[in-house]
Amino acid sequence: MISDDSFKYVHTLRFLDAHPAKHRRVTQDAREAHATASLFFPTSFLSHRFGSPYKDSLLLNQRERALNPTLRRPHASDAKKPKNFWNEFDAHIRTRRESDYPAEWDTAIRPIIARLYKAGVIGPTFLPEQNTPGKAMAGPTDSSGKRDLHIDFRLIQPDITFPRHINHPPSKDWLLTQIHTFAKTHPSARFSALRLCSAPHFYPLMIGHDRRSFTSFTDFLGRGWEWIFVPKDMRFSESSIHHTASQRLAVYKKQLGERVLHMRDLFIVMGEDEADCLKYTTAAIFMIQTEPWRLEVDLWRSFVNVDMEFLEWADRLGEWV
Fold it and tell me: Which of 82, 203, 231, 260 minimizes the number of CB atoms within 10 Å of its CB?
């Protein structure tokens, strides 16, 4: 039996003027975008024998999921970390030899560096240690005090500039103002907050060979490494992912207009009502995940088809912005 939803992805292609002949995966990408978004809207799939095992999934219980977030490090690059973040590290450098680090620091970050190297995210650098701009450190990730890998790039911060044509992310206040303004003029407004997939330590943006030396760092044993993907500790890393998101949005700006906003790795979809939210959410997921297929929506860290009150509540939890 063919579901009523089986061919609704065609409406997305028509809306975005994305012809199936553009590339061989257009239709598949649109179908996957519709299937992804429709899970959070009224659908017959969850009552079907194939969908019923997932109807109680925590993924679909968005309020409960917001109360139990996955441990994630803050998005702030080294330049935007709190000033007291570096106090412990700086005090150690001032009072002890640079190579004499506490054993618990090494225990915390050495396995992380090994996994990143094994996965091809970092590689060895051939720069002399004195020319390596970054220093690995084991800093706290959250209030629990659990230590995680951070790279101190403060040495080269004054020498780094960002191209003028690339915009920096807007402020959180600007984003919330846009959402509140839309909600005031549309009483039945529904929203989706779509977060891009990224690893805890880096964004899925590859660095050119000629730029990798600027991201090199040494670990506690003095070994030199360089990042192959953009590290989140790198200055302007927020602007890098924001610029990439801007490029994706620009392709369909004519169709999406002001209904899809973005800040860093977060897209906000605004619909006049539930049906309108489904239309624009499906289009946004397609826009993110289609050609060149470098980005993906992290549904576990996203909230789909929610109202203004939910966003305000989640904002107080500090969970989505």
Answer: 82
